[in-house]
Structures are given as C-alpha cells and as structure tokens.
Amino acid sequence: MEVFQSEIMSLKCVDADLGKACADTCQVKIDECLEFCDDPNCNSRCQGQWLDCLAACPCYSGCPDGCENCPNPICQGPSEHLFIIDVRMEEFNKGMHWNSDTGEVEFRNFDYQVNQGFDIEDSCYAMMNGEHWLLGGWFNPDAVAKIENCQISRQASTLEFPFHGGIFGSCASFRNKIYTCFDGRENRTRECITFDGKTQEIAAGQTTRGHDWSDLVVHDDELVTVGGCDGDGENCHGVTEIYGRDDGWVSHSWADFPVHELTNHAMVSDSKGIIIITDSSYDNTIYHLDFLPNNVYRWATLGQLRESAFNVSATSILGDVFIGYNNLERIRIDEREISATIVYETGFELRLDHAPFLAVDANFCKEE
C-alpha cells in the first residue's frame, strides 16, 4: 500500500540513494503496520510512526544534509568486518580482525594501554555517532575511553556514576547517547544513565523489575531488555520491558521469556525483532521474539550454537549474527531455521567473556 509522502526528499542531496533506500524501508514498515489495523486510530498511529521513520532518513527533514551528522544506521558506511578485543589478548596487545570479503582472520597489533594502568575487563562497549566507546569496568568503574588509532585512548573526563558494566549490566547506543543500565553492584538494577560523550544524566523512569545480568538492545527506535535479576544475581526472571518514545519503561508481560528465568545471555536485533543467544546454562539455545504490529509478540526457538559458550559475546552485521567464545561462529537465520558455521577455529581457549565486537572496515589496525 502506497502512502502520500508529506516528507519530500531533497533530490540535490549527495546521499539521495541512501535516502531512497531508507524511505523504502519505512514504506515496508507502514505496510506491515496497516495490515494489522481495523480502526482509524490504528491507521493514524501507523502513519505517525511512518512519518517519524521517514524524517530520520538522510536527505529528509531530520537529516537535510544527507549523512553528514546524521545518526541513522544506514549512514554508518562499509563497516562490514569484525575486530574483537578482549582481556585475554591484552598481554599480547593484539586484536582479532575477521575480513568478511576473504574470510581470513588476522591478529593485528592493538595497544590496550595496560602500562597506563587501564584495563577493559567488564567495561561496557558501544558505538556512538560512528565512534567506539568503552565505559566503566571492573577495575576502572569511572573510566571513559575511546578506541582510536589502534589503541585505547583514556579520556580526561570520568563517569559521575561509576559503572561496573559488561557482565553485570548492559549498555547501548540510543538516540545519540550511550545508555548504561542495570548495574547491580551500584544498586542500580532498575535504572539507566545516559552519556553523550561529555556528561551523564539519570534517564527518566525505572524498570518494574531489576535487570542485572541481562542485556539491552535497540529495535525500531526502542530499547528492549529481557530477563535478568533484581539483585546481584538474585531473584532472577524472564520479564520483558521496553523503553519507548514517550512512555518510559513499560513491562510487556505477553512478551516475557516463555521458558524460565533468563540470565547471562546476549541479544541482537534484526528487522523482525530480537534474537536471544543463551549460554551453556541454557543449552546454548537461540530464541527469536517477533515484534508484530500493534503490540503483538511471538516467540520461536531457532536452534542451538555449534560450540558451547559461557558469557557469550555477539553482534549482528551483514544480516547475520556473529557469536564468539573460544571460536567465531556465524549464524544465518532463514524462515525460522538457522544455519551455523564456524568461520574461525582458534584451536585454543580464547574465552571471549562479553568481549567487545567492533564493526570496522577492512583496513582497521592493518599495518602499512
């Protein structure tokens, strides 16, 4: 179904092709939304969501100059390769680069700045406005660092609200800020702190349950968290809560994890919803939560990892999910079925415990 476009793309915009691709995606979303509508209020809601989606596209009203200073994910560029850093590679000052074109893996030089008293263990990683950030950590809970020039660059600013990060809480880039959430050690299992590169603020509203030992992911301009614990590993559950545009955190009981309590998992989003990857405590099973129009949710079990994992790390690029622990595994999802392949077998215990997976270009940290 075609809808009249009140948002007109600037044809002179240098990124017009990306703008059109983004607008086409918005059109698909409104068609899906209207398919489930049976009253005028629903139609108006779909129309409003479509207009918001379109305005955020390059060359439209929210990004009139195209991809320049535009946070839309379609503007992130050719970041289709992986670079993985981890505390177990600190000793050697190495990072693992996987090239999506050749399938080759190289351990490239990367300076962790350990001699400067910095350690990334349990720090929280997020990409904000095209830059790689590390916040907090086990030994440096107030640290702020960026990844640039193939090294960790400790910033002069510090976190006003210390964050023990990674394994105990979650963080995600959302609306041009990094949200650090659910830090059980600091008794903040129900709240998030925003970071814009310079300052921190407590985000409005709290979750109804604590989500320590959970994960956090962005889907369709909403923050989503599933599972976790009310305390530091205590009173765990499978509650799903969503942080939307206007309502703050809202519990969605019909989207709660259907099996049992859920902790120590990784989540990524795709066009249809949320992919949840569990570790060896849950038989390494992969689940999908479909987000259908008008607050309809549907769970599905997709399969299992090829290799057992604990404190699993994951990211999504090229339309697939990449998962790592001792090896690097690629998960392709096709009509409720998955195909899993080991794209790199280390032959030793790499143990990527909640390691940062960076989306980078082919030449990232490559020696000249």
Automatic annotation (TrEMBL):
Domain of life: Eukaryota
InterPro entries: Gal_Oxase/kelch_b-propeller, Kelch-typ_b-propeller
Gene3D superfamilies, A to Z: Kelch-type beta propeller
SUPFAM superfamilies on file: Galactose oxidase, central domain (SSF50965)
Protein name per its UniProtKB record: Oidioi.mRNA.OKI2018_I69.PAR.g9919.t1.cds
Annotated source species: Oikopleura dioica
Lineage: Eukaryota, Metazoa, Chordata, Tunicata, Appendicularia
